[in-house]
Structures are given as structure tokens and as C-alpha cells.
Amino acid sequence: MRKNMLPYHVVELRGLACILLVAYHVVGIPGAGMQVADGSVYRYATDSFELIRMPLFTFISGLVYALNPARGDRLSTFFVKKLRRLGFPFLVVSTLFYLLQTHAPGANGTAAPDSMWRIYVFSYAHFWYLQALFLIFTGVALLDALHTMDRPGGFALAMAAAVAACLMVHVDSNVLSVNEACFLLPHFLLGVGVTRFRAMVPRQAMLGAAGAALAIGVALHQASLWGHLPHFGWNSGVALLCGMGGAVTLLHAMPPGRVFRMVGASSYAIYLHHALFAAGARVVLHRLNAADGVIFCVALIAGLIGPMVLESLARIRPWTRVALVGKA
């Protein structure tokens, strides 16, 4: 195994995160998506992973980032690559999605703002994650350029500050999805820490702590889903327990698998484009009065396979590779 490789099935884990994400958007929020009842098994299943889905994506990003972190002598190159990877697809794909959402018959979901410029500045649809992730990359890259987190002590201080921001920061305007960036920063840093300092923590101790955190978090979250406790948002201790405990546990438990690996290899394209294909399949099946089970399965498959096909087609031209999937 090469020195810069992680001893985990990270691509497969990305595939699992993609499947959870697409399934969530197929079901949708109340009044959107499949428009199932609040008490349906579909909504319960997707709500059960509410505090794990996006933390898992972000944790994986931190894992991979730490293999080749930003340094002061190549900081400008790092940001150019991130703008190409995140910025260009964000501008192009969010614009196309907005135009389709505001003009296509049968479209529903996230409310589209009246002024299109707002989708580039504020949180919009699932593209908020690209804004938040760029903010996270910016903050962590600057810390790494200053070598602030090279040692465990400095990393622990950064993690403590990130946890405090997760629990306390809330900006009313939420410019560039800064609130979500604060919510997810601890999970990104956890991924960095697992890559950077995993040799310092015995595997059993890490798994034991993660398993205990996950068990406590899931128990409290399930109690909230059943109405015994109030709802826990992303900026809560329960979200940190579920997200962090779930990410580390799944990292060690994820087995190799061809399907998960295929999905994970196209994870970014799937994230960018899954809503278009899943929503298209859902609209058609709704008009055909298909059963909920059929709608869910077909829309889920469409949301996974459609972006894979689009990614293959985008490779034909350099400009489509950059604009549609963020690849040079």
C-alpha cells in the first residue's frame, strides 16, 4: 500500500453517503419530493439518517484533504484548484437547476428565490453544500499554511473552536451558507485528524469511543423522532455524537463492494446532478399513478445512474468537464 493511501474503503463509503443523500432527496421534505405522509416509513427512514448524511460526506472530504493538505508555498495553487472543482460547477449547475425549477412543469422542492442572483449568495437547494465546503476548505487551508494543526495540541484547539462554532454560531442572513459551514466544520476536522493522527490512537479505543457516541446519539435522535424529545438540529450535541460517531464507525465497518465503489467513484457528479434525474423520474411516475415503492426505487436509481452517464458525456470536451463535473 502506498504511503499516501488510507487503510479504509473510502470510495465505497462515499458511495454509501451518495445513496443516503439521493434517497433523502427522492423522499423530500413535507410538501415536496414523493409527498408522502409524515408518518410514512420512507420519511422515517430518511429522517433517521438526518444527522449522519452530510457529516459523513464532510468527514470523507477531511480524510482525503489531509492526504495532500494546503501549504504556504502552494496556497494559491490550492485555491485555484478548489475554485475549478467547486466554483465553476456551482455557478453553472445551480443556474441550470434554477431555470429548470422555475420553468419546468411539475417541479417542486426548495423554494426558488424571485431574484436569481440570490442563489449565488445565499443557501439554495443542495448547492449550499458547495458554498459551505469552500468556506471550510478556506479556513482549514489557512490554518495548515500556518502549520497551526501539525501537532495534536494545535489540532485539539482548532477542534474545540470548531465545536464551539457549531453549537453557537448563527448568522441570520446565512451568506454563502456560513451556518452550515460552522455546523459541518467539526466533521471535516475529524476526518483530518483521523488521517493525520490515527497512529497515535489505538484502533480499539477509537472504535469504542465512536461506537459509544453513535449509540447515545442515535438513541436520543430516535427518541426525538418518536416525539419523546424535542427535535435536534445540526447545531446540537446530539448531531455531533451521531455525525462523528457514525462517520468513524462506518469508516471502519465499510466493506469493499462493487456497487458502492461505482457510485462512490462518481460521487461529485451524483451530488451535483442527482436532483435533476431523480425529480424527472418522480414527476413522470407520479403522472402514471405509480406506487410509492416504484417511485422510490426508480427515482433513486435514476438519481444515481443519470449523473454517471452525464459525467461520461462531459468528458468529451474540456470545458464541459470543468463546468459540469469540476474536472480538468
TrEMBL record:
Residues 13-310 form the Acyltransferase domain. It is found in: Cell membrane. This is Acyltransferase. Belongs to the acyltransferase 3 family. GO terms for molecular function: O-acetyltransferase activity. Its main location: membrane. GO terms for biological process: enterobacterial common antigen biosynthetic process. The keyword Translocase does not apply. It comes from the Bacteria. GO terms for cellular component: plasma membrane. PANTHER family: O-ACETYLTRANSFERASE WECH. The keyword Membrane applies. It is a multi-pass membrane protein. The chain crosses the membrane at residues 52-71, 83-101, 121-143, 155-171, 177-194, 206-226, 232-253, 265-285, 291-310. Keywords: Acyltransferase, Cell membrane, Membrane, Transferase, Transmembrane, Transmembrane helix.
